[in-house]
Amino acid sequence: MLTLQNVAFKYETSQPFDIPDIHLDAGGELLILGKSGSGKTTILNIIAGLLQPQKGTVTVNGVDLYSLSGSKLDKFRGSNIGIIFQKPHILSALSVEENLKIANYFVSGKGDQNEQILKNLGIWEKRKQRVQTLSEGEAQRVSIARALANQPKLILADEPTASLDDENAAKVIKLLQHQASQFQAALVIVTHDQRVKNHIANQLTVGGAR
Ligand SMILES: Nc1ncnc2c1ncn2[C@@H]1O[C@H](COP(=O)(O)OP(=O)(O)OP(=O)(O)O)[C@@H](O)[C@H]1O
């Protein structure tokens, strides 16, 4: 489902990052740990097709991401990769269900699972509410729902528990795992939150720039 091979990356002003090879099957889970600034978000962006490495290949669902042209890559990402960003990328003036429909809009024919996803995440009753009227935890579940709206084959989550208490942090990880297993998706979580460690056995730690 996901492979990273011989990937090398550096920002213009930084040292190169140590980026391990990764192989993850459908339904597999991976936790990427590392201190703040160690390059976790950078690696996630490379996996998401948002940041082209200087070297190496990233394949998702058998497709070499960076061999795709810009618009093809955007379309591929929209149908195959669900990203839960560190800072929620949801539109707070729109309702919960409108946020999901926008994601569906970019991938024609999807959207049939929206009701189930919102129910699983416990926000179906709030679907008509504008996101700005929700609590932080609810808004975060909307961003998870939106990432799942097109039943991606690969789910990427950047620090999904950062602003949550222990109980809700555990809940969010379980929800992500449950959703991933329901769609047989691969799940990659990056975090420096040690609490997440107990929930996912397959782990790697990144050390940052050399
Ligand atoms: N666009 C950029 N240009 C130059 N340097 C960058 C850029 N983005 C990030 N960096 C640097 O690369 C390093 C890794 O950043 P990154 O955001 O990947 O770390 P992180 O492990 O996700 O950190 P955190 O846990 O704090 O979110 C940092 O030193 C950061 O300052």
Automatic annotation (TrEMBL):
SUPFAM superfamilies: P-loop containing nucleoside triphosphate hydrolases. PANTHER family: ATP-BINDING COMPONENT OF ABC TRANSPORTER-RELATED, IMPORT ATP-BINDING PROTEIN. It comes from Mongoliitalea lutea. GO terms for molecular function: ATP binding; ATP hydrolysis activity; transmembrane transporter activity. Residues 2-209 form the ABC transporter domain. It comes from the Bacteria. GO terms for cellular component: plasma membrane. The keyword Nucleotide-binding applies. Pfam families: ABC_tran. Keywords: ATP-binding, Nucleotide-binding. This is ABC transporter ATP-binding protein.
